[in-house]
Each structure stands twice: as C-alpha cells, then as structure tokens.
Design goal:
There is one protein chain. Helix 1 runs antiparallel to helix 7 and helix 2 crosses helix 5. About 15% of the residues have low confidence. The longest helix has about 35 residues. The relative contact order is 0.18. The protein has two domains: about 70 residues; about 200 residues, Glutaredoxin. Helices cover about 40% and strands about 15% of the residues. By secondary structure, the protein is an alpha+beta fold. Strands 6-5-4-10-11 form a five-stranded mixed beta sheet, sandwiched between helices. Strands 1-7 form a two-stranded antiparallel sheet.
Length: about 300
Amino acid sequence: MPKSGATEIAMKTSASFRFRILLGLVLAAVLSGRSAYAFGGSYDSRQQGTTGADGQSLPAGLVDVGIEEHLGDQVPLDAKFKDEDGKDVVLGSYFQPGKPVLINFAYYQCPMLCNLVLNGMLGGMRKITWTPGKEYEVVTLSIDPRETPELASAKKQTHIESLGRPGAAAGWHFLTGEEKEIKRLASAIGFKYQYMRNSNEFAHAAGIFTVSPTGKISRYLYGVEFKHKDLRLALLDASEGRALSIGEKIEMFCYRYDPNAKGYVLFARNFMKGGGYLIMAGLFLFLGGLWRREFKRGKIVAQRPVAAGTGA
C-alpha cells in the first residue's frame, strides 16, 4: 500500500534528524578525544646535579653544593632558632592552618648571591596581592651560625621597608641559629651549602621553597628572579586546607609547575579538556534545539490533512 505524503515527509525528516544526531556525536567524540589525549604526560621532579654543565668535576668546595628536591617531605617543626629580636623560637610557631610558608636560606653578610635571591623574592612578593602575616608567612634563615639577631634585624628592616606592605613585619621572620639546627632544616629541604674557609664565605645555590601549613615541602623555585605568577601559584599549591576563590581554583586547574621551564606554565591537557567539555556542552545544546524543532515540525506535518488522490 503506498505511503501517505505525510508519512513520507515524516520519515525523511526523521532520517535527516538521525543523520545530524550521529554527525554531532561523532564530532563530539573526536573533540573530546583530542582534548584528553593530545597533551599527555607528566613531569618528574628536577634534581640539580653537582657537576658542571660540561660534565667536568666541580672544585672540592662545591661538590656538596646544590639543591636536592624532597617534595612531600616533612620539615622539622621543632627546630629551634632566634628571631630578629633575639627571642627563642621554634620553626613550628610560624605554621598556621591555611597559611603556606615561604622559606629561603641566606646569610646576612653575603656579598652577592643572597642579596640577589632576597631581592628577586621581594620583587615577586611586591606584585602579588597577598601580604606576609595575612595569607602566608615568610622565613629567612641565616646559614652562618656566627651571625646575630642584630644583623637579622637590620636585614629585616631594609626588606620590610622595601616591600612597603602594611603589616608585613608580623609575617616575615629573619632567623639565626646554631649550626646543628640550621643544618636540620637545610637537610630536610635539600639545600646543600659549604663554608669556604679561604674566602670566609658560604657556597650555596639559589632558590626559594614553599611549605604547606602542616610542614610538607610543596614547591621549589630556582634562580634569583621569581615571577609573581610563579610565586603566587607556588603559594596556592602549598595552601593545604585553605578555601580558594573561584579565580584561584581556575588558576590551579589551568597551570602546572614545569621543572624544565623552572616555573608554572599553562597546562595544555587541562586547558584543552575544559575546552572540549565546553564544546560538547554547546553541541548538545545545539542538537537539543534541532531535536525540538524537528519534533515540532513532524507533529505539524502529521496533523496536516492528506490531499485527495494520495490514498490507496
């Protein structure tokens, strides 16, 4: 029996609709697959070597100088020092819930490198909205056991004035201590240094470190200049238990630390994955609109009276 005109139109409409649905699903699957797998892989923790770039042995005084990453290890919160006012303190007194701690090693009479690291850290701190003592704590520890709280106080005054952030003095601590306690913290973090008797100086590497509120080592930043983006993200990484804003959560989703670049880079896999999800959502909304339109059109066609002469 010949099919009515309305039935033929409905079947053609249905076939066209199914084809569009199938095409949309295939496209969604392809885009989703690209977003999930185009940028795979992960980064291993970087370890600084103790040989020169040409593979030659370093001078004897530099063999045990460098930074060895101990990510996730615990720092000794019971380590004892003196603050810039000469008061006895324990490291753990600077660790509070929700507040990461930024640590760096220096010595206050250092002729060059320590000042470069401190100034680089200071430059990054100026450009972030967080303030020491409010959102995070900073601990600067002298690796020279001969140095005094008076030296620490003078160094602190200079850098707090340079930072120019009200209230920062309560959150940036300049410490001195005995050699045993200094080495406990340095060893836990993997900061290796040597005293050079001939020059009366300390050989050491350049870097700063973020630690979680519970004392777990979170991130290593290398060099003498620290981009404010890297410093901010390193502090966010270490902010265990802190409530993050929507903007901070997006930052943490999109950026990852790249040990080869020595900083945070846009994490393409997550970025593309988020883009894939948005595209899929858009496709489903588009296809849903098509489905509603086709459904309404099919109902209208089915309700039309059949023209005379089209029957059996």
